[in-house]
Structures are given as structure tokens and as C-alpha cells.
Amino acid sequence: MKPVIKEEIDAMRAQFKEIDARPAKKVAQAKARKKRVVYRQLEKVRKKANSISDQTKILDHSKSKMIEQLYKKATPKKPKKEYVVAKKGVQVKARKGKVLVDRQMTKDARKHGMNKWGKETKGKQKGKGSAKGPGKGKEKGKGKGKWGSKMK
């Protein structure tokens, strides 16, 4: 065994960190492919936008709206987070794009109206009247049910 100096160890560590920091060849190729796809899509949208802006029959306001919609569709969207409820005996790792939550967190969110159904019914009155209108709901003893009009 040769005696190793501290400076040599630090130099080797720095060298390894530099190697680790470099992206792998496959990763770099995949990123380049994604960039090319996005660039092609944006080029197509740019051509369409130019053709729309050259038209004279359409109003400027509607032209800008159409172009805005084109660009909105073409831009890449970030994937949304997926919430995974932790259960007993089921091992799920919280990875990229996944958030691990427990049952109580989901119940609290539901209680405070954080889910999609709570948002829709927030401004509406619950339990007041019916969709059919007053007096058009079920009426007892009018020939409906098991016994029909026999019961009075």
C-alpha cells in the first residue's frame, strides 16, 4: 500500500464528481429528440399563424384569438402530480410526479371542499327545492308504490 496524500484524494473526488455531473449519452440524445419534436411543432404553428395573419377578411381581434389558441395547443404541458393514498401492507414509493398521502389527508381535503366536486357545488344551494320544481316530486298514495291507492 502506498501512502496517499489528502490532496490526491480531494483531486480524485473532484474528478469523479465531474464525471458524475456529465449527462449520459442516451439521456442527451433523448433530450435532443424532444427538442427537435417541439421545434417542428412550433414551426408548423408559426406557418399557420402567418397564414392567418395574412388573411384580410378576418378581424384583427379574431385573428389574435385564433393565433393564441394555436400556440396554446402547441406548447408542451407539464404532467400533473398523481396522489397515491398510502394503505397498510401496500408499498408504494413516492417518485417523480407522485405524492404519497395518507387517508386522513384525503378526508380533510374532502371536508374542506378541495376536491373537484366540492368546487362545483360551492356557490349552489344544497337541499333547497328540487330540479323538477315545487309540487312535482313524489307524492304519497297516488297509485304509486307497492300498495297503490288502497292505503288511505
Automatic annotation (TrEMBL):
Residues 99-108 have a biased composition (Basic and acidic residues). GO terms for biological process: rRNA processing. One of its GO terms (molecular function) is methyltransferase activity. Residues 96-152 are annotated as: Disordered. GO terms for cellular component: nucleus. Coiled coil: none annotated. It holds the Pfam family Spb1_C. Residues 2-114 form the Ribosomal RNA methyltransferase SPB1-like C-terminal domain. Residues 143-152 have a biased composition (Basic residues). This is Ribosomal RNA methyltransferase SPB1-like C-terminal domain-containing protein. The lineage of its organism: Eukaryota, Viridiplantae, Streptophyta, Embryophyta, Tracheophyta.
